[in-house]
Amino acid sequence: MGTEFVEKATPSFKKSWDRARTALGTADLFTRTPDRAARTAAADILGDARLQAGDRLTVESQNGALVARRGNRDVARFTSSAPELVKAVEASCGIAKGTVEQVHELAGVAEISLC
Question: What pTM did the predictor assign?
Answer without folding.
Answer: 0.65
